[in-house]
Amino acid sequence: MSNGIGEKIKYFRIKHNLTQEELAKGIVSVSYLSKIERNAADPNPEAVKKLCERLGISPEKVIDEDIANDVMRWMESLLKRDLVLAHDLYQDIQTNIEKVIDADLFWLVKLHTLYYFVLTKQTDKAKRKLKLLKQDQKHFSEKETYYWLKFKAHFEYAESSYEKAFLHFQEAERLYSDVFKGDSEEYYDLIYHVAKTATVLHYSYHASVYAERALIYYRDHYRLERAAKCHILKGVNYKRIREMDEALKQFELAEALGKRLSSDTILFRVYEAIGELFHDLKMSTQAIRYYSTAYELVKHQFSVQELIAILGHVKTYIQCDKQEFAKDWLEKADTLLKTEKNMPLRYVYQVKVLRFVLYGFTTQFEKLLVKEVIPYFKSRKLYIAYAAYVRLLGDYYYNNRKYKLAAEYYAEAHQAMVDIQHT
User: Fold this and answer.
1) How many Å apart are CA 349 and CA 240, to the nearest integer?
2) With the C-alpha atoms ordered 43, 44, 48, 49, is the resulting torsion angle positive or negative?
């Protein structure tokens, strides 16, 4: 009889839209069925047989090596982000879920399903899966707990909850050595995502150390796309500590790999990052050139990358006091947001704020920042952006002769920058 009989009964009861009362009627008590489903009781073989007959399933474990191989291939395809293969294998696995349960792979499949939904941007399904898994996390094995932490972090990253994602990626890292033997692609995938998340949060030390560790692995194993992404992360962090020559060197290494791979994805990230570097150096002509090159790779895709490239143009044209050009590009951003409704809020807020910068500040600007923008960035611990918007609100109050409020917001912006330096 399957060790996972409780999971099997629960899965097929829900699939048949039966309540515990309906399934248990005339066979066992509802409380006993609940214990069976939670593997909290040693099930009576006769009762299990009757429950399975009512559900039309076998109480016996049927070992099928093919399904185990399919599950392992599916997990690997998700690790490598081969979404075409992952989709095909997912369909096969779902039609053989009874065999999955019998192979004691039920929870691994459910956990990887959460990741599959995150990668394929099926947000509502991912939210439902997360909620269901959360109810059962106390029953997870160490290996299942590792994947729960890692995939929950991926979900949180996709939802812009970067601090939570960072902490859960680190928890998964601490558990890794208890679950797996030796370093592997699984380990360095985790290390890469710690670096990526730390970069978003401006945790420069963690970002640099983890990106270097990941780069060494991916370079040595000829994983050139990931190696290029590590070079970009390193470049971003060098730029933030004002090591501009080293930052440009990292971006150029990533560019060479992007051209070798013919990867527009890598090349977009490189050119957008170089555009930002020159923007920070107030070298507007060079910044626009790279932002334009990045934009050409993604225009008319209605993607977040297209919006990022557009915003680069807007900010740089404002910087060099070419307001009309900035307004033209801001119109492109507005058009894009009307077409694509699910853009990340961090970029949507940039568009809204830049409209006030270009067309003049009103009381609606104050309301937007106080009620929406500042709480959004503070709650996600994105302190660099948070400090910038707080300082901008301080400027607004100062220019309107509200000096006390201005002083309070300037102090808050300063404290945010102090806090990030001690992270």
Assistant:
1) 23
2) positive
Dihedral angle computed from the Cα positions of residues 394, 396, 401 and 404, in that order, rounded to the nearest 10 degrees:
-20
Model confidence at 315, in pLDDT bands (50, 70, 90)?
Answer: very high
DSSP 360: -
Which pTM does this prediction carry? 0.85
- What CA–CA distances, in Å, run from 185 to 80, 87, 189, 226, 286? 9, 21, 6, 11, 38
Per 3-state DSSP, what percentage of the chain is helix, strand, and coil (rounded to 5)?
80, 0, 20
Q: Does residue 362 contact residue 356 with C-beta atoms inside 8 Å?
A: yes
Number of H helices, E strands in the chain: 24, 0
Cα–Cα distances in angstroms (integers) from residue 55 to residues 5, 33, 49, 51, in the given order: 12, 13, 10, 6
Note whether 305 and 270 are within 8 A (CB). no
Checking 261-268 for CB contacts under 8 A at 24+ apart, the result is 261/224, 261/225, 261/228, 263/225, 263/228, 264/297, 264/298, 266/225, 266/228, 266/229, 266/232, 267/294, 267/297, 268/294, 268/297, 268/298, 268/305, 268/309
Lowest mean pLDDT among 14-18, 109-113, 289-293: 14-18
316/288 Cα distance (integer angstroms)? 7
In angstroms, what CA-CA distances link 227 with 198, 259, 336, 403? 17, 13, 31, 50
Nearest to 297 by CA among 277, 275, 314, 319: 275
The per-residue pLDDT for 372 is 97
Which tens digits make up the pLDDT trace of 160-178?
Answer: 999 999 999 999 999 999 9
Phi, psi of 393 (to 5 degrees): -70, -35
Average pLDDT score over the chain:
92
- Alpha helices, DSSP H only, in 299-382? 304-319, 323-339, 345-359, 363-368, 374-379
Is pLDDT above 60 for 111?
yes
Least confident of 7-16, 127-136, 403-412: 7-16
Measured distance CA(403)–CA(399) in Å, rounded: 8
Instruction: Single out the residue of 306, 235, 237, 236 nearest to residue 265, CA to CA.
Output: 306
In sequence order, which ranges of 201-319 are alpha helices (DSSP H)? 204-220, 224-240, 244-261, 264-280, 284-298, 304-319
Q: Which two tokens stand for residue 157?
A: 């990253």
